[in-house]
Specification:
alpha/beta; eight-stranded parallel β-barrel; about 50% helix; about 230 residues
């Protein structure tokens, strides 16, 4: 892996606050940290999108809305509505959770229909799209099958995890996802990325975006070692 500056590493991060009990003050802190460190995005649920957009006005930090989060158990129509509303309120990026139950049933046509619908909305609005697999619930074959769908549909990113499942990202899954999509789609590692060593391993495996609530700690650790 090429050596990164601290600023370049910071741009890998979707700085995350997705707790159910997050308050206005929590989002102010999140956005302040994102501005200070130059993170790529703040990753939030859809309700605080407008507030975070206002807090980040005049910066290059994106606002990312998590859709059908964290279970993915809403209909395509509902996911599309939530996506549209988040975009109207200022979301620059959309991270949606696939319908994991449909995938476990082997209904890949549904997964592709869902992905096409949400990616189309994002493309129309010039908004970045990310597809959350929740890899902890999937077999390796299922991960490959969904990644192959993504290779056809071409969202901007496929993403490992919500951080609310039984496990988060693994280096093995990131590498598998990247091998499957190649250069057609980027990979985001999210869930359990809490330290610099894990972060760098995910990047080495092919991740081009990192979702973490420990972004500040990781970037400061990197600056202390390599700056």
């Amino acid at each position: 892996m090429k050596k990164l500056t601290t600023a370049q590493l910071a741009k890998y991060f979707d700085h995350t606050q997705l707790k159910a009990f997050a308050t206005e003050e929590d989002f102010k802190i999140l956005c302040s940290e994102a501005k200070q460190h130059g993170f790529m995005m703040v990753a939030i649920n859809s309700v605080p999108v407008a507030a975070c957009k206002a807090l980040l006005a005049g910066t290059d930090v994106h606002v990312g809305a998590a859709i059908s989060f964290p279970l993915g158990q809403t209909t395509i129509e509902v996911k599309c509505f939530e996506t549209e509303r988040a975009i109207i309120e200022g979301a620059d990026e959309i991270d949606y959770v696939i319908n994991i139950g449909k995938l476990k049933e082997g209904n890949y046509a549904y997964i592709e229909e869902e992905m096409k619908a949400i990616v189309a909305l994002c493309r129309k609005a010039n908004v970045c799209s990310k597809v959350i697999f929740e890899t902890c619930y999937l077999t390796k074959d299922e991960i490959v099958r969904v990644a192959e769908i993504a290779k056809r549909v071409k969202p901007d990113f496929i993403k490992t995890s919500t951080g609310f499942g039984t496990a988060g990202a693994t280096v093995e899954d990131v590498a598998l996802m990247k091998r499957t999509v190649g250069d057609d789609v980027k990979v985001k590692a999210s869930g359990g990325v809490r330290d610099l060593k894990t972060c760098l391993a995910m990047i080495e495996a092919g991740a081009e975006r990192i979702g973490s609530s420990n972004s500040v700690k990781i970037v400061e650790e990197y600056a202390g070692q390599y700056a």
